[in-house]
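Quick one:
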Amino acid sequence: MTNSMDKIRRLPCWKGAVDPQPLGGGITNHNYVVEDQSGKYVVRFGEDIPVHHVMRFNELAASHAAFEAGISPEVVFNSQGILVMRFIEGICFDEVAVRQQHNLERILPLLKRVHRELPNYFRGPALVFWVFHVIRDYVATLRRAKHQPHGAGELGWLLEMAAELETAVGQIDLVFGHNDLLAANFMDDGKRLWLIDWDYAGYNSPLFDLGGLVSNSGLGSDSENWLLEQYFEQPVTDELYRKYAAMKCASLLRETLWSMVSEVHSDIDFDFRQYTRDNLVKFKQQLLAFQKVSK
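Output:
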């Protein structure tokens, strides 16, 4: 951490001396708040993370595009492994906030803008985030690891379930997805919502963002049905719901495997082992629900 803070202090973008302060909450990057004579900024410090398919050139391009689309704060400087953005005075949502109907009514149009408008501003090479490829690659990474994380004994079965879910999803529409819709990535400044953290951005099915939003914040069935009908602007057919339910399962499986890999490879101070346990339970519960609607 000291080395990171020294690097931040030496960045040429500051006006005057700065004293970086750690910013909690991140479980992929080390984040800091920096204030200089011109204002207040957030600094995200992290190199490429190939085991998680995080490539910083892609995060940078998505962050620029999200700013141009009016979705995310401005990037004012970047260097290798460092991203400096304007600080937003606001509150990050938690799961309870996401579940409130009036907030869902604000989140939905923001998500549609990500999917439909952000590609108009994205420049340069773009990644594809296909969750089933990510799952297969995570399993291969875990099988090569010397240290086996919680749940590693179930990798074969998890891979079989992923194959069944991929078949159930079938053909998809393609949009530009955020692909990491944790509650804390929504910020409310009192006037509007912002969506932050574009580490996993890339082209994907809209079903993945919808399923991740629902599963990450524990939305109830009424809210889930409202979200789907409003997103697709029509009643949801049984076929579409099965495809969506399969993708929601896949989003939980990916989060579980992400945590397993992080147990082995991450240096972030976070209880990944417990996070793995929690998400594995959620995945198994959702898998049972999916199997019921698929009969």
